[in-house]
Design brief:
About 15% of the residues are buried. The protein is built from 3 helices and 9 strands. It is of the alpha+beta class. Helix content is about 25%, strand content about 40%. The chain is elongated, with a radius of gyration of 19 Å. It has a single domain, classed as Roll (Nuclear Transport Factor 2, Chain: A), CATH 3.10.450.
């Protein structure tokens, strides 16, 4: 019994350390806040989190829900913008409609990184299967993550 409790405690500690932790703006380094305000001066409703070793800020801009990551020195690392399926490049929509026509579309995001091409992340689901795909603007799948819920007896 003691081993089970110890194993559960270790799993719980490991799990909670990998989850983003909400923090208040006063805990964010000045360089990070300045970099965010310079990149997104008209952002509203900024809420900060510490994710691994980066600061993530969730915010709204021109009606869009967005998140951006910065390192501790204020260097911008990534921005995700929630978009509608219809806003995807036609080649991405065509690839999804051809290979995943019987899947339901979930969250869709445009992902921008410095010095890299814009990517599109699309969540799809069917029955107990959930797929997360990362597409280039040309409709090529760069990354695929599949999760499936095991059947319960």
């Amino acid at each position: 019994m003691k081993k089970t409790i110890l194993i559960l405690a270790i799993i719980l500690i490991a799990f909670t350390s990998t989850i983003a932790q909400k923090i208040t703006a006063d805990k964010v380094p000045a360089a990070v806040k300045q970099a965010f305000l310079k990149k997104y001066p008209k952002a509203a409703d900024a809420k900060w989190e510490m994710e691994k070793k980066e600061y993530e800020v969730n915010f709204k801009l021109n009606g869009a829900v967005m998140s951006a990551n910065f390192n501790t020195k204020g260097t911008w690392k990534e921005t995700e913008t929630e978009i509608k399926f219809d806003a995807l490049p036609q080649s991405v929509k065509d690839a999804i409609n051809k290979a995943f026509a019987d899947y339901k579309t979930g969250e869709v995001n445009k992902i921008e990184n410095p010095g890299s091409e814009t990517l599109y992340e699309v969540e799809l689901s069917k029955a107990k299967e959930k797929i997360e795909l990362l597409f280039t603007k040309d409709g090529v799948i760069k990354k695929r993550k599949i999760e499936s819920e095991k059947e319960k007896d």
